[in-house]
């Protein structure tokens, strides 16, 4: 790997691989607790638009290569070897094709306890203890800019819209969120990997189907799981398929789910099981669970 390639590697992916996750996001600015020291207020910022970092605590910043050199206190050549190693697997950051961005600030992460969220799980027939094991209750603010209606119409003010939801973390530190009213993705879309050193891999499209499966089959919890969180990134799972003797898919019984199943089957060289056929009268695993426990 040369310096030019290293500088183009996605900083947010690199930070996630090192277990540093976003605390808040305001437009293109993604804030973290500094990797260089202990702190209680996030002062380390990555601008996702230009893929550069700046540490406000030290007044220093740079690109991905600069970050690795500082973090590991090593030379350029040593940093390049680290970035090239199999420990890291990054991509160039995608350029935004519009100005629509999230202005999110996390307020708190806690055990699922709000009555409305527990009621939602009961409605979906999902075991609450299982949901608590893999999900959290997330409270966050959505900072929205709105035009003022007073005399100074040229200016804008900020409104803080509070939300609380069930949240399921992905491999890059983003969250898939859901409650009775809405569902969304916060920060960054990515797959979620749950490893238990099993030779069997189960693939799901969404976390509600994953939780529904464990509600139905709790004795299968010791297997490995990947929740793609979107059929558009199912291709990101192909490279791990050779690591398993058995691969099972539980994608939705719709056009995108059928395409995802076909893609996995075509790239699986070991035993492949399309488990969606077991609930073919239903759209997904959760629909089946709700009918089964009606």
State the main characteristics.
294 residues; alpha+beta; DNA Primase, Chain A; Dna Topoisomerase Vi A Subunit, Chain: A, domain 2; ten-stranded antiparallel beta sheet; five-stranded mixed beta sheet; globular; DnaG_primase; zinc; Znf_CHC2; zinc-finger; DNA binding
Molecular shape: globular
Distance between the termini: 57 Å
CATH topological fold name of the largest domain: Dna Topoisomerase Vi A Subunit, Chain: A, domain 2
Largest sheet: 10 strands, antiparallel
Q: Can you tell me the number of structural domains?
A: 3
**What is the number of helices?**
9
Mean pLDDT: 86
Strand order of the largest sheet: 5-4-3-2-1-6-7-8-9-10
Cα Rg: 21 Å
Q: What proportion of the residues is helical, as a percent range?
A: 25-40%
- The total beta strand count reads 15
Element string (H = helix, E = strand): HHEEEEEHHEHHEEEEEEHEEHEH
User: What is the correct CATH architecture of the largest domain?
Assistant: 3-Layer(aba) Sandwich
Give unreliable regions as ranges: 95-101, 146-158
What is shown here, in short?
With 294 residues, the protein is of the alpha+beta class. The chain has 3 domains: 3-85, Alpha-Beta Complex (DNA Primase, Chain A); 104-186, no CATH class; 192-293, Dna Topoisomerase Vi A Subunit, Chain: A, domain 2 (3-Layer(aba) Sandwich). It has helices at 3-8, 11-17, 64-72, 76-84, 115-123, 128-134, 207-216, 255-267, 285-292, and strands spanning 24-26, 29-32, 44-47, 52-55, 60-62, 103-110, 136-147, 156-169, 175-178, 183-186, 192-194, 200-204, 224-227, 246-249, 271-274.
């Amino acid at each position: 790997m040369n310096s030019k390639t290293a500088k183009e590697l996605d900083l947010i992916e690199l930070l996630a691989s090192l277990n540093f996750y976003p605390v808040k996001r305001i437009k293109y600015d993604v804030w973290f607790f500094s990797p260089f020291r202990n702190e209680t207020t996030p002062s380390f910022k990555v601008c996702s638009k230009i893929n550069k970092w700046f540490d406000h605590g030290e007044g220093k910043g740079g690109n991905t290569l600069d970050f690795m050199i500082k973090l590991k206190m090593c030379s350029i050549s040593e940093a390049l070897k680290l970035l090239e190693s199999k420990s890291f697997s990054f991509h160039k950051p995608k350029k935004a094709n519009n100005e629509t961005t999230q202005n999110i600030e996390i307020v708190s992460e806690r055990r699922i306890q709000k009555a409305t969220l527990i009621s939602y799980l009961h409605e979906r027939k999902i075991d609450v203890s299982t949901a608590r094991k893999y999900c959290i209750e997330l409270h966050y603010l959505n900072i929205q800019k709105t035009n003022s209606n007073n005399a100074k119409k040229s200016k804008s003010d900020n409104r803080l819209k509070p939300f609380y939801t069930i949240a399921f973390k992905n491999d890059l530190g983003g969250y898939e969120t859901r409650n009775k009213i809405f569902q969304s993705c916060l920060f960054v879309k990515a797959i979620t990997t749950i490893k238990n050193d099993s030779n069997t891999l189960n693939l799901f499209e969404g976390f509600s189907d994953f939780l529904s499966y464990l509600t139905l089959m709790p004795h299968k919890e010791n297997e490995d799981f990947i929740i793609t969180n979107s059929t558009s990134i199912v291709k990101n799972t192909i490279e791990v398929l050779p690591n398993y003797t058995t691969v099972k898919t539980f994608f939705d019984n719709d056009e995108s789910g059928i395409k995802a199943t076909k893609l996995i089957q075509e790239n699986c060289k070991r035993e492949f099981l399309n488990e969606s056929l077991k609930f073919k009268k239903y759209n997904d695993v959760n629909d089946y669970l709700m009918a089964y426990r009606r």
